[in-house]
Specification:
It is a single chain. It is built from 9 helices and 10 strands. By secondary structure, it is an alpha+beta fold. The protein folds into 3 domains: about 40-145, Tetratricopeptide repeat domain (Serine Threonine Protein Phosphatase 5, Tetratricopeptide repeat), CATH 1.25.40; about 150-255, Sandwich (Immunoglobulin-like), CATH 2.60.40; about 260-385, no CATH class.
């Protein structure tokens, strides 16, 4: 308590010597009191009743790291303090280490992490502790929550794991998922079930309930947003959440990403091969047209289409005419083969992407019909249908 009094006297002196308002002075004094209260260490680490009593060696190691973290925090070495408190909590997950960990994370603007550990501290807070200390932690928790988003996952089966942006979370029963504002990719998975994923927009101060119904491995996955954001401030272009808790039927509208990587890879490879084959066909078509014009000039030069019946009069021109005619046929055939290959690859790519059952898209798959038109010196590829 003497540390708090000295800090208060120091701040009062500063406020009295400057133009800072009395209201701001009270805010500064409250912040100083909270810091002193949270960083004041009890004689030993307090372990929640839900956690098994740690071994003496583990408790001693956690206490050592905890004391080092306090010293770093008093020196305002916040990153070092955060690392030490994390390590102490990993050894002995106690409510008081969680409170200090959340306090330091808040200092570093790691609001989602601060919210999580302050939530853990409040839910493991023992009745023997003072209400003043609990109220201090509650105020820090409320501050962190205003700058982070809260996701309440409802899982079926209940023991499913939750991953955020590919990283698995260690959660206590009933613990929310706290996220920094922005887009995040949530996945729920469990042994014997198909994983279900969903992209969400996390809004600062908002709360979102997401239901994950994991099907057996042979069934199609389903994810549902069951409630909207509280007090949302949506980012520009963000999708509105579903307020009626209705299942989302269209995977494209719910941002559920299933087998997206394979689809995009197939589209890219198929499109590249189609363009390469079509480009080859166009090139040979243009070259054949040029050779055909050359042949027509040679026909005029030898006196018409019957001018080379007797080649003795113009042997060189007739030989060139024969070569030009052969080149026209060869290049035309090559262009037809290239166009045929392009059409086959395009049709195969469309079949892979949109045929029901091949990509798991089911009856809601888009139906398309590609049509290839090849004319004299030109080519047109049209795709019609529903996307």
């Amino acid at each position: 308590m003497s540390r708090t009094i000295c800090t208060s006297e120091f701040l009062v002196g500063v406020c009295g010597a400057s133009s800072v308002t009395r209201h701001r002075c009270r805010v500064l004094l409250l912040a100083a009191a909270l810091s002193a209260l949270l960083l004041a260490a009890p004689a030993g680490l307090g372990v929640s009743s839900a956690v098994a009593a740690p071994e003496p060696a583990a408790r001693a190691e956690a206490q050592r790291l905890f004391e080092q973290g306090k010293r770093a925090a008093h020196a305002k070495q916040w990153n070092k303090a955060l690392d030490l408190f994390r390590r102490a909590y990993a050894v002995v997950p106690s409510y008081d280490v969680a409170a200090n960990l959340g306090h330091v994370a808040l200092k570093l603007n790691k609001n989602a992490e601060a919210s999580r550990y302050l939530w853990i501290s409040l839910h493991g807070f023992p009745p023997s502790e003072t209400q003043q200390r609990r109220q201090s932690i509650q105020e820090l928790y409320d501050t962190a929550k205003r700058s982070s988003a809260t996701v309440l996952p409802e899982l079926e089966p209940k023991n499913a794991d939750v991953l955020v942006d590919g990283a698995e979370l260690e959660r206590q029963p009933g613990e929310p998922v706290f996220l920094e504002p922005g887009q995040h990719f949530l996945t729920a998975e469990a042994d014997g079930y198909e994983p279900v994923s969903q992209m969400i927009e996390a809004v600062a101060g908002g709360e979102l309930t997401v239901k994950f119904e994991l099907p057996k491995s042979s069934e199609a996955p389903v994810a549902k947003v069951s409630s909207g954001l509280d007090n949302p401030q949506p980012a520009p272009g963000a999708a509105e959440p579903n307020p009626k808790s209705e299942p989302v039927e269209d995977p494209s509208e719910s941002h559920i990403l299933q087998q997206g990587t394979n689809l995009y890879l197939g589209l890219i490879l198929g499109g590249a091969v189609t363009l390469a084959a079509a480009g080859t066909g166009v090139g040979y078509t243009l070259s054949a047209n040029k050779s055909e014009r050359r042949a027509e000039d040679l026909v005029d030069e030898v006196g018409g289409s019957s001018g080379c019946v007797d080649r003795s009069s113009r042997p060189a021109a007739c030989e060139q005419l024969a070569d030009a005619a052969e080149a026209v046929d060869r290049k035309r055939n090559t262009s037809y083969i290239a166009f045929g290959a392009a059409g086959a690859v395009a049709l195969g790519t469309a079949t892979y992407l949109f045929w029901p059952g091949l990509t798991g898209s089911g009856s809601n798959s888009a139906k398309v019909r590609p049509t290839l038109f090849v004319g004299d010196g030109s080519m047109h590829l049209t795709v019609s249908g529903r996307f």
